[in-house]
Write the structure tokens for this entry.
Amino acid sequence: MFYRQVSEYRQKNIYNEPIGRIKGAMPNTILVGTQWGDEGKGKIIDVLSRQADIIVRFQGGNNAGHTIVVKGEKFILHLIPSGILHKDKVCVIGNGVVVDPQVLLEEIESLEKRNIEINSNLKISDQAHLIFPYHKIIDKLRESKKATLKIGTTGRGIGPCYADKVNRTGIRLIDLLDKDVFRKKLKTALVEKNEIFRKIYRHEGFSFEEIYEKYLSYARRIKKYAFDCTSFLNAEIKKGKDILFEGAQGTSLDVDFGTYPYVTSSNTTAGGACIGSGISPVDIDKIIGVAKAYTTRVGKGPFPTQFPQGLMEEIRHKGGEFGATTGRPRRCGWFDAVVVRRSITVNHLAALAITKLDVLDGLKKIKICTGYKYNGKIYRDFPASIKVLENSQVVYEEHSGWLKPTSSVTHFKDLPVNARRYIKRLEELLETKVSMVSVGSEREQIIKI
Ligand code: GDP
Ligand code: IMO
Ligand code: MG
């Protein structure tokens, strides 16, 4: 009965409720990246976590690097949800995430060393697939000099692990927790893997005993976090608890909707949240997107609005645009409204958080991409063809910059007039409300509109 009431209340209020509408509670919300990742999702999740009860990662793995800065102290989270810095919140790693147990344990340890408590506030789905050493090695071999198709992956074994999952040869946390099942599955996997490694990659292959013993030692330490997260989350929803789903990567890296094959191997879009956690779509109330005030991309693949070299260096240094996971320099470019419009469509975004507005403070002129021109045709919708993306001319509109610092502004009305115009123009072009503007990496540097 209570569940029905909560559910009906939520559905009535879909898309038009300000965050924090009832006694500090928020509707079940999915947050996704709208570009090619690194939009500042970690920061926005941290800001929103205060109002949520449970924060859930639902896809990706430790290819993600989500940064949170609290009073000058920087935290980079790869697997553990960005809500972990708030006491009394439950953080869930859903079934859709691929988990490298070694990385997970290191992350837990490093947070504990910084006095962040991790015990029953962390739950990991026992259906999550595990990353093994052979996934990481094959990921790197495929990206090596000899390879013909290079994606520029993070080399964390993400793609090969998801491939095993779909191929039905993966090993889940629940399998690891049963010695006999694990022995059988690992043996079977290695028979095939070692043949492939030796014959195709001229790699010596992997010893069963070594991986078996190592992973059993991980199992002993991870066991206490393993959970039937789907039952847990659905029961919490029935109690009226509020869930915040933390997307990793971004819409243009989605395996279906991104710049394929230059994408990651999971569904980074809102639909992935249900698949990757076991929640029904009817229990989702709101979807919000995060977009940088400009665009960045790390790894290979088309990037139509990429800056020329000089401006790229300038913005990269101002924005600290180096990968939070690999340290690689990120490519930078103008805001691409075609990319973000696509994301708004695919995710049905109710609102956008625009981050890193402060990075544009010193620019005299600021451009926004409104379309692509290819073979005389203007594309306003994101084309699926890589050939079109790589060879099209970008249609820009140009705006005057504001040439004033914004990083200590806390109210929208106090932003320089041209900064307000820029945000308003984005809203117009995207037909979507901007509900937050971030002007610095610190928790407090946020303007709520
Ligand atoms: P995520 O993967 O989407 O969580 O983003 P990353 O953490 O990889 O990259 C975003 C970077 O920008 C991090 O270093 C953040 O600390 C930083 N950041 C986030 N919001 C802002 C902002 O509004 N201004 C500035 N200057 N930096 C920001
Ligand atoms: P967050 O969550 C930016 C990119 C890689 C590469 C492609 C495939 O921090 O936004 P993978 O290792 O996933 O197979 O690499 O995806 N990539 C990211 N780029 N931010 C991320 O995560 C990324 N995770 C993967 O650079 O181009
Ligand atoms: Mg990142």
Remarks:
- The chain has three domains: 26-125+226-288, 130-222, 291-448.
- Residues 57 and 411 are 31 Å apart (CA to CA).
- The pocket of 6-O-phosphoryl inosine monophosphate (ligand 2) is lined by residues 33, 36-38, 63-66, 151-154, 156, 158-159, 248-250, 253, 264-265, 298-299, 324 (CB under 6 Å).
